[in-house]
Amino acid sequence: MHRCAFVQRVGRRHCAHTSRIYGAGLENAVAGLKRFRVLEERDINRETFVESWPEAGLMVADSPYDPAPSIRIVDGRVVELDGRAEEDFDTLDVYIARHGIDLAVAPEAMALDSLTIAHMLADINIPRAVVLRLATGCTPAKLVDIMRHMNVLEMMNGLAKMRVRRIPANQAHVTNRRENPALLAADAAEAALRGFAELETTVGVARAAPFNALAILVGAQTGRGGVMTQCAVEESLGLRIAMKGLTTYAETLSVYGTEQAFVDGDDSPWSKAFLASAYASRGVKVRFTSGTGSEALMGSAEQRSMLYLEARCLCVTRGAGSQGVQNGSISCIALPESLPGGVRAVLAENLMASMLGLEVASGNDALASHSAIRKSAKLMLQFIPGTDFIFSGYSAVPRKDNMFGGGNFDADDLDDYAVLQRDMQIDGGTRSITEDEAEAIRRRGAQAIQAVYAELGFPAIADDEVEAAVQAHSSDDMPVRDIVPDLVAADAFLAGERSMVDVVAALARRGFADVAEHVLTMGRQRIAADYLQPAAIFGRDFVVQSAINQPNDYTGPGTGYRVEGARWHEMAHIHQAKSPRDFIVDRLGSPIESLAGYGNAKRGGSTEVVVAIGPAFGRIITKTIGGLDHEEVLKAVLTGIAEEGLIGRVVRIWRSSDCAEIGHVGAKLSGSGVSIGIQSRGTSIIHRVDLARLNNLELFSQSPSMTLDTYRAMGRNAARYAAGKMTTPVPVSVDNWARLRLIVKTALLHRRESEEIRDLPPEALRFDWEPEV
Predict the structure, then answer these.
(1) Helix residue ranges, H only, 73-137
(2) How does pLDDT run across 315-343, given as a tens digit for each residue?
(3) Does residue 515 contact residue 446 with C-beta atoms inside 8 Å?
(4) What is the mean pLDDT of the chain?
(5) Rounded to whole angstroms, how far apart are CA atoms 441 and 403?
(6) Does the annotation mark 392 as catalytic?
C-alpha cells in the first residue's frame, strides 16, 4: 500500500472518529449541565431579578440621587430640609417640616453621627426611649443614613427593642371570591379562635362591602370577643361602614413619598390627616399604609431610592397623628425583591417606623415569592424580633380565595406556622386548634350570621350553605349563591338607619347572647376609645394592651416579653403533639408463645449461626419499627440460614440493647464465629468473632425499609460467611426521610428495650418452629 493512501485512510478514520466524539460533545454542550437544568426548574427561578436602575427609581437604597441629611432652622422655622431650600419645598417637605419632625430635638439628633445612632439602636444597654426621642428629630435622609450602617442582624436586634407594644400580635385576611356570608363568618370565627388579634376583609364587588364587614364582625366575635375588624375599600365608603359600627379599625389610608404620587391619588398629606381625624372621632383605630416600591410602580420615584421615599412617608404618617403604619412593601413586595438588598430594605422600613414610635404591621401579606425557602427566610426578619403585627394580613383562607392578591402564607400553612412558634419559642400571635374545635366554632359562626340575616330580613342563608361553610376548604366547596339580592340588601342597609345595634338585637333574639354581648362591647369600646392608643389590641375580657399600659421594655436577656407559663403551654401543645407513650403502643405486645428459654447459652458447633436478639425482643416489643412481627422475622432469618445448609440457634442477650454488642456477644457464642444481632426495633448486624465490636460484616441500619425478604437474605449471607463462601452483601434500600419521620419512635423503642437490660448471662432460647427447606 502506498504510504500516502495509508495516511489518507487512517486520517479519514481518525477524522470520522473525532467528529463522532466532538459531535457528542456538541450535543452535550447544547444540553448543558444537568444540574443547571434541574436548578432551572426550581421555584426560585420563576422569580424576576433585575439590576438596579436609579434613574427609574429601581434601587432599594443608597441611590446616587438621594439627598444628604441636613436641616436648618431659623426662628423655629425649617428653612432647609435634606439639601432643599424652603422655597423649593414640595408639599411633602412642607408637611414634614411643619408636622413630621420634633424641632426641639432636631439640632441634637442631626448633629449626631449616623453611625452613633445606629450603635444606639443595636446596643441593648441604650433604652428604647432614648433612641425614640432622637429619631423624632431626624429628617427622612437621616433615618435612611442610620439604616445604611446596619446589617440585617443588627436591624432585627433594633426592631426587638423598638417595637411599640410589649407583646407581638398578628392580623389575618378573611375573604372569598364568591362573597359568601356564611363562609366569611365561618372563616372569621376560626381565625379569631386561632388567636389573630385583627381580621381584615375586602371585596370583589364594592357594593358587597357592608355585608362582608358584617359577616366578619359577627364571625370574629363568635370566635373570640375583642378581635378588631376592618373592610378595605375606598376611603369614604370605609368611613361610612365604620360609622355603622361594622368595623373597628382602618389601615387603607395610603401615603406616598413623592408629590406626584399623591396628586395621582387625588390626595395630599393634609387630606390624609383630616381623614384619620374623621375615623378617630368615630372611635375607629387608624394606621396608614405605605411601603417600598409604590412610587416606582406609579412612575413617580423622582430618581430617589425606595427606602428614602418610604422614610418620607413615615415622617408624614407621624405628622398626621396616625398611631401606626402598615409597611413592609405590602402589595409591591415583588418589586423590591427583584432588586439587590430588597428584603433588607423591607426590614429597614419596619425598623424606621418603630423608631418613630409607630405601631408596625410589618407586611408579609402579599405573595412575595414562589420559593418556600425565600418567603420563609423573609418572614424570619419580622418573626424573630417580633413586630406589633407580624403579618399585616396572614391569609386565613386558601390563597385562591384571598382577594388581596394572594397570601404569602395561607390557611394551608397554619400548622407549619404553629410549629415555627413551638420550635423557636417565639410568639407569632396564633394558637393551634383541633379539628373538633374548628368545626364547632365554624358552625356557630355560620349559624350566627344566618340568624342575623333571617332576623333582619336579608336574603336567606340556607342550612345547606351553613353546613357547606363548616366543611369547606375554599369557596369552590360552596353552593352557588345569587349575589344580586345580597347587593340590593347591602345598598339598603348602608342607606338606611340600621346599624350595629340592630345586629346586636338580632343576635340576642335568635339565641346568640354571647356573640351579641361581644358585638355590643365592641361598640362600647368605640365610645371609651381606649383602643385608639398606640398599638392597641384587646386581650382576654376586652382588656386593652397598648404602648401605654404595656410598652415594650426589652433591654436584653431576661427582660421584655418572654414566652412562658400558660402561653408557652398553649404554643407547645399543638394539636399534632402526642404523648411519647403513644408512639410505640402499636409495637408492644404479648410474648411470642413459641419462644422460650431453657438455660444459659453455651458456645455451639461449627455448623451453626447464632441469632442473637435483644432483651425485649419477642417478649415486650413484638414488632419492628417497620411493623414486622418478631415471630415472622425469626422465621425469615432461620429459613435463610437453613437454605445454605446450616443451623440457626436463637440466643437472648440480656446485658445490652446495643446492636453491635448483641451481635458481638452472639459471635462469641457461635460455633462458626458468625452471628446475626437483632435489636427489637429491627436494626440488625452480621458479626464475626475476630472483628472489633463496632466493626461488622454487614450492617442493616435502615430497619424501617427492611422486609421479610431482607431478613431471609441476611440469614443466607450469614450462613455463607460461616461456611467461608464468597458472599455478595444484601442490597438495602435507603430512605433518607426515615430518620426524620421515625426518630422519636426509634428513641422510644430503644429506651423501652434498654429498660429490659438485666445483669444475666446470655439465655438459650427454643423457637418451636422448623423451616420448610
Answers:
(1) 91-95, 106-111, 114-122, 128-135
(2) 999 999 999 999 999 999 999 999 999 99
(3) no
(4) 94
(5) 23
(6) yes
- The answer to whether residue 173 is catalytic is yes
- Choose, from 82, 114, 145, 171, the residue flagged as catalytic: 171
Say if residues 504 and 523 touch (Cβ distance below 8 Å): yes
| Per-residue pLDDT tens over the stretch 526-584 | 999 899 999 999 998 999 999 999 999 999 999 999 999 999 999 999 999 999 989 89
Question: Cell digits for 240?
Answer: 361610612
Answer for the pair 672, 606: CB distance below 8 angstroms, yes or no.
yes
Residue of 200, 349, 401, 698 marked active site: 200
The three three-digit cell numbers of residue 621, written as one number = 416489643
**Which domains occur in the chain, in start order?**
67-150 (no CATH), 169-572 (3.20.20.350), 585-767 (3.40.50.10150)
Q: Using CA atoms, how far apart are residues 460 and 478, in angstroms rounded to an integer?
A: 15
Relative orientation angle of helices 435-455 and 181-193, to the nearest 10 degrees = 140
Q: 604 vs 87, 700, 716, 761, 771, CA distance in Å?
A: 106, 25, 19, 15, 20
Residue located via cell numbers 365561618: 186
**Each residue of 164-216: pLDDT tens digit?**
999 999 999 999 999 999 999 999 999 999 999 999 999 999 999 999 999 99
User: Is 497 a residue of the active site?
Assistant: no
Residue 696 grid cell: 461488622
Cβ–Cβ under 8 Å, residues 227 and 430: no
Catalytic member of 145, 173, 475, 608: 173
The dihedral built from the CA positions of residue 448, 452, 457 and 459, taken in this order, carries a sign that is negative
First to last CA, the chain: 70
Q: Is 251 a catalytic residue?
A: yes
Summarised one tens digit per residue, pLDDT across range 692-751 is: 999 999 999 999 999 999 999 999 999 999 999 999 999 988 888 988 899 999 999 999
Averaged pLDDT for residues 397-423: 95
Phi-psi region of 46 (alpha: psi -120 to 50; beta: other; left: phi over 0): alpha
The residue annotated as part of the active site, out of 365, 410, 427, 608, is 365
The active-site residue, picked from 66, 80, 235, 251, is: 251
How much is the pLDDT for 17?
42
326 is catalytic: yes
What burial class does residue 350 get, using C-beta atoms within 10 Å of its C-beta: 0-12 exposed, 13-18 middle, 19+ buried? Answer: buried
Catalytic residue selected from 305, 354, 369, 392: 392
Q: What is Dmax (Cα atoms) for the chain?
A: 115
Q: Give the contacts of 687 (CB within 8 A, at least 6 positions apart).
A: 660, 663, 664, 666, 667, 674, 675, 676, 677, 696, 697
Distance CA 344, CA 324 (A): 21
538 SS3 class: strand
- Please check whether residue 414 is in contact with residue 430, taking contact to mean a CB–CB distance below 8 angstroms: yes
pLDDT reading at 20 higher than 80: no
Q: Which of 696, 670, 672, 668 is nearest to 683 (CA)?
A: 696
Active site residue 486: no
Q: Which amino acid is at 152?
A: V
d(CA 386, CA 426): 8
For 257-293, b where at least 16 C-beta lie within 10 A, e where not — what string?
Answer: bbbebbeeeebbbeebbebbebbbeebbbbbbbbbbb
Confidence at residue 21, expressed as pLDDT on a 0 to 100 scale: 41
Residue 669 has pLDDT above 80, yes or no: yes
